Amino acid sequence: MADTTGAVLVFNAGSSSLKYQLVQPDDGTVLAEGIAERIGDAGSSITHEQNGESVTETLVLDDHLAAVQRAEQFFADNGTDLASAGLTAVGHRVVHGGRSFHEPTLVTPHVISEIKRISTLAPLHNPANLVGILAAQDLLPDVPSVAVFDTAFFHGLPDAAATYAIDREVAVEHAIRRYGFHGTSHEYVSGRVAEFLGRDPADLNQIVLHLGNGASASAIAGGHPIDTSMGMTPLEGLVMGTRSGDIDPGLVLHLNRIADLSVDEIDTLLNKRAGLKGLCGENDFRTITELMDSGDAAARRAFDVYIHRLRRYLGAYTFALGRLDAITFTAGVGENSARVRSEALAGLEGFGIRVDPGRNEVRDKAARRISADDSAVEVLVVPTNEELAIARQSAAVVASLSAR
Ligand code: ADP
């Protein structure tokens, strides 16, 4: 059995899912990983991978604690007693840090109550993250828990990029600003870009496109984000799998007043029944591309709307940066869809952006360049690894505590 000493157990708890990974923060070795899905539902399941084997089990998981307990059992069956495995930390992804948190933070009772308070800003996400934290603390009371916030990287956004043009008093009273999300991924990937190019991050102006089921773009100058597409919530910005991204806020008022939809109904409409799914009934790009190729007009429109929005952000961020050195695609769609990448950057040779079609088609799990040799702007595909980033940040928090 692989040595678990010093490893970090990373939890990413969603409203009905729990992803976990046991990872060595130094070299990124993944010792085990798993995912519990449809928690609280009749058909819950859990998949655990360890020692080269993958086991999937369908069972009733009433809540996140049950999922954590089942995961612990899987570890034990594979010869890993988590409580005595020498873990450095349990690292938790927490979606919203509000105004309180902009660094990875050791979880204390005060931190728990603060995350609870911030839940009003992220009612779909923070409560689930908290349940994950409490379940892990219940299971491993002697291992420090660290919260890593999805908003943290964007804490220092320039005021002009972070501010909504609404009544200032209302904004201040209700903590309304643009927070940005997927920060762990944008920070990790932009750092990897600098490494890959052998450049000092301080000298690099880049755009990172995190295109997964959720999607966001960021403009990063000298290692610091100067703009990002998600806002007070992860609903703003790019067209996503099931979220609308940017809309006219007047649309919400209209749906409420004229279509008689309640706020909760509009919430569901924009978060779960919009984006690609709302436009063509599908949110997986593999299916959408197949449908498009078979002549499906709704799938074609969904694709076109997605690309149009992406290009709008690319243009805006290029101007915001003033000089652009690199564009990087990451996450499920960004890493896998050559078609999205080529259409997003088609016809931009006049701006020094030239994708090499052959390089773009290569499938590889490693970071790679897909721009042509004569492209002034580097175009890259860099796999994100939020778990590793969370593990490293968590280990660093614990190390700084013991150094005191
Ligand atoms: P999230 O973490 O936001 O749930 P991911 O980053 O895992 O999402 O991305 C999931 C999405 O990636 C899928 O919905 C699908 O659209 C896309 N995807 C995954 N594999 C491929 C592929 N081979 N080709 C095209 N798209 C893909």
Automatic annotation (TrEMBL):
A Gene Ontology term for the protein's cellular component: cytoplasm
InterPro entries: Ac/propionate_kinase (IPR004372), Aliphatic_acid_kin_short-chain (IPR000890), Aliphatic_acid_kinase_CS (IPR023865), ATPase_NBD (IPR043129)
Its EC number(s): 2.7.2.1
Co-factor binding comment: Mg(2+). Can also accept Mn(2+).
Record-marked site positions (Transition state stabilizer): H182, R243
Keywords assigned by UniProt, alphabetized: ATP-binding, Cytoplasm, Kinase, Magnesium, Metal-binding, Nucleotide-binding, Transferase
Subcellular location: Cytoplasm
Pathway recorded for this protein: Metabolic intermediate biosynthesis; acetyl-CoA biosynthesis; acetyl-CoA from acetate: step 1/2
Keyword Metal-binding: yes
Positions contributing to Mg(2+) binding: N12, E386
GO biological process: acetate metabolic process; acetyl-CoA biosynthetic process
Amino acids binding ATP: K19, H210, L211, G212, N213, G214, D284, F285, R286, G332, V333, G334, E335, N336
Active site, renumbered: D150
Major localization listed first in the record, in broad terms: cytoplasm
Residue numbers binding substrate: R93
MF term (GO), any: magnesium ion binding
Pfam families per the UniProt record, alphabetical: Acetate_kinase (PF00871)
Cofactor(s) needed for function: Mg(2+); Mn(2+)
Recorded catalytic activity of this chain's protein: acetate + ATP = acetyl phosphate + ADP
Family: Belongs to the acetokinase family.
Record's function text: Catalyzes the formation of acetyl phosphate from acetate and ATP. Can also catalyze the reverse reaction.
Subunit structure: Homodimer.
Protein name in the entry: Acetate kinase
Organism: Gordonia jinghuaiqii
Organism placement in taxonomy: Bacteria, Bacillati, Actinomycetota, Actinomycetes, Mycobacteriales
